[in-house]
């Protein structure tokens, strides 16, 4: 082997050994430094703890607790008694103040009927009402063509006025010289208002039977309708309306199929202090609940009994028959004065079939139109009255507890023509 190679190998080995030795010495030195630092820190901590302990013991020895005022007075009294001194008179205790009674929960005060009508008129006038606006825009043209009159009829049909009523209204408008002559906006509006009022029924008696002179007491109202029309909510709002007229109301939760229906009705009752008769178990016979509610209303001499029933499809014969049973069982206690059909105004002509079947099953005395905002479906007021031969008595225009009011034909027509 070459001499240079051997020298190189030896040099590498020597360097490696030197590095290892240096590293080992450095590691030992670092470990010794760490151990020393730990020992010094521990010594300082022990010294500080000992110093704090000594200071605490010294403070405890110097501190002498002062006797309380009560203890000092007791000791003085004991000394006086031992010395024969007369006992000091006791200071009379101040009389205890009676506990402040917890205030009763405040009940919501319902809005009056007159105030509701005024507010609902404003809602109608401020709402989007393409029905009235579209008619007015067409009729105020200078010269109405045959196509314009077709547009008028189409607008009425789209507003759910109904085919027969739409045709009748168009014929009357065409004969009115105020429209077919010079199209003065004021005259057109006046003519259109008169014609719509005639269709809506300006002289129809829309009072609830419970509000009429000589009404039975209690006056029984049964609420009916399909699922999703807002029937239970309407029942609660109707109770508030009667409470605003200072009538004593009781509600019966005969919707025993929907678990939350009775709870929902009780929530409404709690707001205006109206008791609710309900079953303790789900799926109970709704007719028995109605009978019990009628018995209680009779015993307590209530002014009005409102019976909420389960929503049902008009094509289910057994469910429709059950409505008849509810009425028959209730009338064993009290006569039924009113059956109100709750219709969702947004369903339009689809609600007509429902309405006719309910009318045949239980007999309807009036209609409540929920969700009537005066817009595209405003004509449902006209068509439902013509289909059933009964008036629209109440309308709802919002989700608020007082957004249910007696239907006012003139206010309604003014609103959709605003």
TrEMBL record:
Subcellular localization(s) per the UniProt record: Cell membrane; Cytoplasm
Catalytic function, reaction form: GTP + H2O = GDP + phosphate + H(+)
Region (Disordered): 56-116
Membrane-spanning parts: 6-26
The SRP54-type proteins GTP-binding domain, residue ranges: 391-404
Record field: compositional bias (Low complexity): 56-74
Record EC number: 3.6.5.4
Signal peptide residues on this chain, from the entry's feature table: none
Molecular functions per Gene Ontology: GTP binding; GTPase activity; signal recognition particle binding
Keywords on record: Cell membrane, Cytoplasm, GTP-binding, Hydrolase, Membrane, Nucleotide-binding, Receptor, Transmembrane, Transmembrane helix
Annotated membrane topology: Peripheral membrane protein
Enzyme class: hydrolase
GO cellular component assignments: cytoplasm; plasma membrane
Any one Gene Ontology BP term: SRP-dependent cotranslational protein targeting to membrane
Broad class of where this protein is predominantly found: membrane
Residues reported in the UniProt entry to bind GTP: 225-232, 308-312, 370-373
Family according to the record: Belongs to the GTP-binding SRP family. FtsY subfamily.
Function: Involved in targeting and insertion of nascent membrane proteins into the cytoplasmic membrane. Acts as a receptor for the complex formed by the signal recognition particle (SRP) and the ribosome-nascent chain (RNC).
Quaternary data: Part of the signal recognition particle protein translocation system, which is composed of SRP and FtsY.
Full protein name: Signal recognition particle receptor FtsY
Origin species: Bifidobacterium scardovii
């Amino acid at each position: 082997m070459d001499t240079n190679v051997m020298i190189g190998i030896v040099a590498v080995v020597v360097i490696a050994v030197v590095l290892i030795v240096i590293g080992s010495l450095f590691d030992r030195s670092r470990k010794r430094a760490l151990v020393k630092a730990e020992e010094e820190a521990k010594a300082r901590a022990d010294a500080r703890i000992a110093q704090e302990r000594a200071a605490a013991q010294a403070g405890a020895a110097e501190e002498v607790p002062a006797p309380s005022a009560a203890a000092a007075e007791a000791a003085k009294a004991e000394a006086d008694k031992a010395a024969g001194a007369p006992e000091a008179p006791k200071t009379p205790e101040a009389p205890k103040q009676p506990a402040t009674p917890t205030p009763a929960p405040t009940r919501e005060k319902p809005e009056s009927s007159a105030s509701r009508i005024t507010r609902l008129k404003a809602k109608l006038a401020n709402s989007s009402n393409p029905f009235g606006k579209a008619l007015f825009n067409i009729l105020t043209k200078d010269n109405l063509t045959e196509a314009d009159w077709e547009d008028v009829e189409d607008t009425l049909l789209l507003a759910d006025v109904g085919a027969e009523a739409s045709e009748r209204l168009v014929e009357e408008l065409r004969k009115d010289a105020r429209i077919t002559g010079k199209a003065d906006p004021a005259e057109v509006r006046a003519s259109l208002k008169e014609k719509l009022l005639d269709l809506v029924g300006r002289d129809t008696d829309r009072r609830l039977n419970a509000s009429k002179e000589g009404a039975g007491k209690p006056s029984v109202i049964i609420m009916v309708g399909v699922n999703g029309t807002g029937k239970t909510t309407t029942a609660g709002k109707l109770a508030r309306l009667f409470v605003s007229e200072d009538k004593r109301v009781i509600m019966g939760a005969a919707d025993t199929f929907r678990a939350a229906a009775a709870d929902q009705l009780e929530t409404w009752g709690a707001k205006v202090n109206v008791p609710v008769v309900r079953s303790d178990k789900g799926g109970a016979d709704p007719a028995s609940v109605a009978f019990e509610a009628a018995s209680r209303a009779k015993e307590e001499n209530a002014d009005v009994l409102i019976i909420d029933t389960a929503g049902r499809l008009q094509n289910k014969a057994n469910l429709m028959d059950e409505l008849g049973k509810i009425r028959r069982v209730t009338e064993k206690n009290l006569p039924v004065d009113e059956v109100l059909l709750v219709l969702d105004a947004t369903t339009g002509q689809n609600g007509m079939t429902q309405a006719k079947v309910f009318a045949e099953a239980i007999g309807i005395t009036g209609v409540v139109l929920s969700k009537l905002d005066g817009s595209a479906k405003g004509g449902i007021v006209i068509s439902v009255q013509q289909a059933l031969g009964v008036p629209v008595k109440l309308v709802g225009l919002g989700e608020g507890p007082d957004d249910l009011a007696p239907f006012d034909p003139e206010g309604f027509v003014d609103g959709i023509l605003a």
